[in-house]
Amino acid sequence: MSGDSSNTSVASIGVSSSRRRGGVINGIPKRCWCGEEILPLMSKSDYNPYRRYFRCAYAARKKLENDNHFFKWIDEALINERVQMKVEKELFDKVDEVLAEAKGSMKKTMLSAVVGCVVLVGVMKVFLKSW
Ligand SMILES: [Zn+2]
Hints:
The chain crosses the membrane at residues 109-128. InterPro entries: Znf_GRF. The chain is α+β, with helices and mostly antiparallel strands. It has 2 domains: 6-75, no CATH class; 77-129, no CATH class. The chain has helices at 6-18, 20-23, 57-62, 74-105, 108-129; strands at 24-25, 28-29, 38-42, 52-56, 71-73. A 3-stranded antiparallel beta sheet has the order 3-4-5. It has a two-stranded antiparallel sheet with strand order 1-2. Helix 4 runs antiparallel to helix 5. Zinc ion (ZN) binds at residues 32, 34, 36, 56, 58-59, 69-70.
């Protein structure tokens, strides 16, 4: 499964990126385009000793190099997470704002809707982290 299949693989990367909406967590998809799981691994190379990365399970098993299976350094992935956390902080700031407003005008329905929303986000985050 290597060498002359570059056209096909470009096509399948295109397909998987159009499916990103559901399965991407912190920029890391759950599966490679080939259908194998993405594994968190540790580099043993001299260039990047002990640097952690995500890798397609198939490519890791076959010890593939310069292939087009999924690969991403974890520290680079964490940058995405930091951006995500910033967005979340802004979201919570906004919720505080709405809460303060709701308290003032006694809009209890709105208050419970907002609290429910925050709880939902929290539950989803825990759920997504435990994959
Ligand atoms: Zn793969």
